[in-house]
Structures are given as C-alpha cells and as structure tokens.
Design goal:
It is a single chain. The longest helix has about 45 residues, at about 165-205. The radius of gyration is 21 Å and the shape is globular. The chain has helices spanning about 1-20, 25-45, 50-65, 65-75, 75-80, 85-105, 165-205, and strands spanning about 110-120, 125-130, 135-145, 150-160, 160. It is α+β, with helices and mostly antiparallel strands. A 5-stranded antiparallel β-sheet has the order 1-2-3-4-5. It has one domain (about 1-205): Roll (Nuclear Transport Factor 2, Chain: A).
Amino acid sequence: MKTFLYLIVFTLLCAGYVTAETAPISPRIEVQTTVDAILDQLRTLPADSPQRREVISGLIREQFDFQLMSQGALGRSWASANDLQRQKFIDLFTGLLEETYLGRIQAYTNEKISYGEEEIRQNRAVVDTVIHTASADIPISYKLLLQNNDWQVYDVVIEKVSLIRNYRSSYASILRSKGMDGLLEEMKEKLDSLHQRAEVEQKDAA
C-alpha cells in the first residue's frame, strides 16, 4: 500500500515539474527581455557598426511573428495571393517593419522605459510600455499571440497607431490600383530607399 502511495506522490511531483518546465514565460517578461537587449545593443555598439544592426535584427526576428504580421497587413488579399507573392511580401514587409521599428526606437536609446502590467485573454496578450523622454512620454504597446508555448509579437502600437492597421490601410489602395505585383514593386523601392538612408546615417555617425 505504501509503495502504491509513493508512486502516486512521485507521479504528481513529476507532473508538476513538467508543467512548471513547460509553462510559457509571461508576455511581459518576453517583451522586456527583448527590448532591454535591443537597447543594450544601441547603447554599447557604435551607430556605424554593422554588427549592431545585425544583432538587433536577430533579436527582432526572434520575437516578432512576421508571417502573422504580413497576413494582418494584407488582410483579405492574403488569400488571393500565390505562394511566391506571399513569400516576397513577407520578406519585404519584414525589412520594412525592422526599419520602421529601428527608426523609432533608436531615437530614445538613453531614455528610461517603464513596463506596465500584462493583459492576457486566452492566447492573446497586450504589454504596455512607455518611453520617458525629457519632453514627452512615448507609449508603445506590444500585442502578442501564444504559439507553441511561446509569446510572439504580431502588432506594435506606437503612440496609439497600430503599425499593422496603418500598413493595411495604405496597402489596400495600392492593391486596388496596381494589384499585388505593383504593391511588391513599391515595397521594394521603399525598402531600398530606407536602406540607402540608413547607410548615409551610418556614414555620418562614423
């Protein structure tokens, strides 16, 4: 009888151990870890360092679900796009979001960031942050989705403006007038322009 009871206790302990090990990290901690790591790179590596951009890009790509963000930006047009168009869109949109996000966050590298409480509803969460500058407080909210026991960002709301909703609105008019291939061409031109501007800024900072 004692042996049977020991087996039950051991089984329960093991089940609790597995549950604790496999429980997802809180979305707030996920966001704070990533943002703090990005800011640390911005503070420690020089602006003209290729390594800085590479490291930060890796951190962003690890935390952000760019395929889900791409679907949100295209809206209903995602279903009508073929596989090649979808992949091209994901690649271009990933680059554009990185440049947009980096452009915003690099302006506040030496400012204080506070993290609000997380709001979780089933498999979705929102984490509010505020960048405190000398002249204003800049609110940035991260929307996350729980996938494979990991919280992934699928939208960023900067000063109450959703990046995904903003892109979807602007892309909708281009899709109506030029179609998917026309949109992809415009996205490529925009990304090339952003890359060129980033190269100039890096040279100026050197």
